[in-house]
Write a structure and sequence with these properties.
The chain is of the alpha/beta class and 320 residues long. It has a single domain (42-317), classed as 4-Layer Sandwich (Purple Acid Phosphatase, chain A, domain 2). The protein is built from six helices and 16 strands. The strands form four sheets. Strands 7-6-3-14-15-16 form a six-stranded mixed β-sheet. Strands 8-9-10-11-13-12 form a six-stranded mixed β-sheet, with helices on one face. It is globular and about 50 Å long. Residues 1-25 form the signal peptide.
Length: 320
Amino acid sequence: MKRRLFLQTAAGLFAAPAVIRSASAATPAEAQITLPPAKDLISSFGWITDVHYCTSPTRTIPKEDSIRVYAHSMAKMRQAIDLFNTRKLDFVIELGDFKDCLDNGDRPGTIAFLQTVESEFRRANAPRYHVCGNHDFDKITLGDFLDNTENAGDAVGRTYYSFVKGGIKYIVLDACYNNAEGEHYSQGKFNWAVAVVPKVEMDWFRKELSEGKEPVIVMTHQLVNTWDAKSQKIPDAFFIRNSAEVVEAMEKSGRVLAYICGHFHKGAYSERNGIHYIVNQGLVERPLPHNVCGMAHVDKNLNVYVEGVYNERSHVCKKA
């Protein structure tokens, strides 16, 4: 079936400053995708990534072609949640950099940003999950992040975890570590260009990949598709330092359908050895009516349909 997605206007979505109310044009639907009949879908979920919620003024980063319009993030997120709530989804997940901070901000003020964006996320009707992103720890501790967010089920209080929905095993990794010994990012004590999946977590990851027989989708914040660095102009700083180790574990398992992440706000896509690598675009980029989010659907033949919403790209990821 053809899905052409249209959006409500941003005006009136929440109490917002004038700059939000003036950005009221409807976001156009750029992406279309043909989905199998609902009876052939076994698992579906929605995602957002790189919300970067805070009250900072718009920031431009020319070398990344980045225009971060923080003032529009909440309205964009509300659009996404409203849409997700019209669909039958097994869960929704945010893929990191959920909040941001003020340059001269403090811990209490940054926690308040996290509480505000988490409150909006809780409007989702489906179970909710979080992925750790580097900006989630710029002014606050790891404990602050866990105390003010909530994952569903057995993932409560965890930064890496797995769960099964519709016969698909979903594995969430946390690469927000300074080193292989397991020093986690906390209160600004990190270099965002150094992201590591530590040894203890890698051992757990291999064990998860060896247990059960379900097909697997892996999600984290940072990228591992280093082979795309040159062709898709992705700077080295966006990749997990031990990407080769993560990729080797996934390929060796023979179970992984896709690896889904955010972090690189332009987005990217490739396929290697039967695994599809989907890098989603950053929600914070560009002013309304531009917006990005998406849904992914797995059919009974284990094809993954990535349904880009608004200005996000779509992909049909065929099972190898």
